[in-house]
Amino acid sequence: MSATKPPQLFYKPLAIGAPMPLREQPVNVERMIHFVPPHLDKVRAKVPDMAKKVDVILANLEDAIPADAKDAARAGAVEMGKTVDFKASNTGFWSRVNCLNSPWFLEDITTLVSEVGNALDVVMIPKVEGPWDIHFVDQLLAQLEAKHNIEKPIGIHAILETAEGMKNVEQIALASPRMHGICLGPADLAASRKMKTTRVGGGHPFYRVIEDPVEGRERMSAQQDPWHYTIARMVDACSSAGIKAMYGPFGDISDLDACEQQFRNAFLLGCDGAWSLHPNQIDIAKKVFSPDPDEVKFAARILEAMPDGTGVVMLDGKMQDDATWKQAKVIVDLAKLVAD
Ligand code: GLV
Ligand code: MG
């Protein structure tokens, strides 16, 4: 009698700091992760239409879902996964589960994988503090996927929203080949760092730089970006691990200009997308995270002027060489991806 074969795990957690092979999978356009509260019937009813307008729909089970609606939200997420054909519009289906030490996480993850594991692309894990959190989720997903015959591995997207997570961001990015990316959670991160703000992302009127005194007029000052360091460090961690970096939520739904500027700063620093919390943020994300047509034209001229990517040429008075060829390729490749 042959011994029963143990279930095959998709991935084994990697030791901290071990080199990680880059993941080989098609890259999707994910300019906006549109958050949906799945316990609300009215909102759920709009999901099939919404799925045609956005790159990713996320069923949110964590913050913003009241404790007494957690079960209903989980059931709503399952209903979405079972009834909406996300693949038909090439829309990603993600869920943000409750944090690992909450009373809801285990039921969130077991229910999602067992009920809609084949529809679920990515599970977003909040308040990740170190690679150990990712290892735990990785193994749990591997067990559940094996048990429920899930056809492809479910990705992990971590939210960077604690000071401890920030300290370990490079190791988090490398913690598993299952890592899809990392996004910024500016509200929780601000609280964890004891930043003195009640805002969700964006600038602050008191965070400024003032010029030196000038004779005869009032000194000018300008707001600075309190998220610059955080986003730049997150982008470095993600880029060096070959995963996506994303901006998170922008809480002032009524300030579309400030939202656009925050998204644009993130895009310029290397982010691929952001969350949309309200339908009016969808078009902003679509515009900002698609490359500017004039930039694409200029980038295409650089690639044409240097067919083998080496040497030096002048275009409109600007020097181009191997490095600017690579910059141009990033923009042209993204334009192609968005156009497909
Ligand atoms: C998002 O979860 C945040 O805390 O900003
Ligand atoms: Mg948060």
Classify the secondary structure makeup into a structural class.
alpha/beta
Shape: globular
Strand count:
12
Mean of residue pLDDT values: 93
Folded structure, characterized:
Keywords: Lyase, Magnesium, Metal-binding. Residues 52-279 form the HpcH/HpaI aldolase/citrate lyase domain. Its cofactor is Mg(2+). The chain has helices at residues 41-45, 47-50, 70-83, 105-116, 131-147, 163-167, 169-173, 186-193, 228-241, 256-269, 282-288, 293-305, 322-339, and strands spanning 32-36, 56-60, 92-96, 122-125, 155-160, 179-184, 208-210, 221-223, 244-246, 274-276, 313-315, 318-320. By secondary structure, the chain is of the alpha/beta class. Strand 4 (122-125), helix 5 (131-147) and strand 5 (155-160) form a beta-alpha-beta unit. Helix 3 packs parallel to helix 4, helix 4 packs parallel to helix 5 and helix 12 (293-305) crosses helix 13. Magnesium ion binds at residues 63, 126, 161, 185, 187-188.
